Amino acid sequence: MVAHNVIAHSNAHTLPRPVQYENKFMHVKRVFNTQPEVMGFVICVGETIHERMLKKPLMTCLLSVQAGLLLSFGILMSCQVGGRWGSSTGVNNFVFAGFGIPFGLTFIVMCQGAELITANYMFCTFAVLAAEPEDRMRQIKGLLGNWFVCWWANLGGAVLHFVVFAWSTGLMKTVAVDNDPYSDPTGSLENLEKLWYESAASFREDFNGDFCTRGNWGNANVCKVMKVCRAKCTAAFTTSIIRGAGCNWMVCLAIWLQMIATEPISKFIMIWLPIELFISSGFDHLVVNQFLIPAGIMTGGHYLDSRCNWGNAFWFNWFPVTLGSIIGAWFLVFPFWLINKDGWYAGVKQRAAVTEAETKFVDGKVEDA
């Protein structure tokens, strides 16, 4: 199946729909797209992603880095606002979830092609399911290549954003024990604000005191990333799988719902609701964790708990959350495929018949058979 001229998952069809009115037809703006139509959009995006991966892998890499950067802007805002809200109650979770991260995902959706790995788990699977038998192996190759490249490029974009925009600029302070920042022992990167401690024990004692609330919650954003890092690096393997599945089910639902909508503000609301839900509930988003865990390690989380390290980040979070994210995407993909495939196939046949009929006309006249 040849990829359609679809650039990104925001290109949902919004042309007017003819409606009968007083024996005439008038054009009215479509309020929403139907479920089979949305599945067609998703399949088109998946095919485009595969074609881009197979023909222009560097473009896939750049768009994936861009997605990591865009989402990280939202994550940083969540840390700066929600992380400093002043409590660990439901209000704090609501603010952390609702102000920042949904904005980042909206940027990606509206940014005409930026590739987020958690969304691609849905797009690519739909493209493989819809492929013709002779084309399925090519679609599978595109899927595997994209999932590998996009995963690492999203991680690179998230870490790059934290280093350039948050850490080196001093927006997040760095703990230095015995004049040795764990993340930058050679002093090669600039950091304007460092918190000096004689030993890791003195830092832990201060952290368990008023470190987070001191200076009108001035260090609360650093507390947030360190606590998140410690929680993610010490979670049980199966727990991370389940939390990743719950998260990406909601992420894919957000993408699906915004494709139903046809207006930009409606799309934002449809994105915001599932994202607010899964973050407030405590589920694990892979790319969000690819920002928060390195942030926690680089700001000094290793001094707080030695288990906050790159090995534990991969084994206890990123790897199981990746598995969970694939499973969560499939929670949406397979039921929606079974429900909507008949309607989608009917639409494909109808469009093929219309195209065939149009080819019989030449210069406004019926072409001789």
Descriptive notes:
The chain is mainly alpha-helical and 369 residues long. It has a single domain, classed as Glycerol uptake facilitator protein (Up-down Bundle). The protein contains 13 helices and seven strands. The chain has helices at 35-55, 57-81, 90-98, 101-110, 117-130, 136-167, 200-207, 214-217, 220-233, 237-260, 264-281, 286-304, 310-358; strands spanning 17-21, 24-28, 174-177, 180-181, 194-197, 361-362, 365-366. It is elongated, with a radius of gyration of 24 Å. Residues 1-23 have low confidence and may be disordered.
CATH topology: Glycerol uptake facilitator protein
The name of the CATH architecture is Up-down Bundle
Low-confidence stretches: 1-23
Discrete helix count: 13
Q: What is the H/E string? A: EEHHHHHHEEEHHHHHHHEE
Q: Which sheet architecture does the biggest sheet show? A: 3 strands, mixed
Percentage of residues in strands: 5-15%
Strand pairing plus helix content: what structural class?
mainly alpha
Q: Specify the CATH homologous superfamily.
A: Glycerol uptake facilitator protein
According to DSSP, the number of beta strands is 7
The strand line-up of the biggest sheet is 4-3-5
Output the keywords:
369 residues, mainly alpha, Glycerol uptake facilitator protein, three-stranded mixed β-sheet, two-stranded antiparallel sheet, 7 strands, 67% helix, elongated
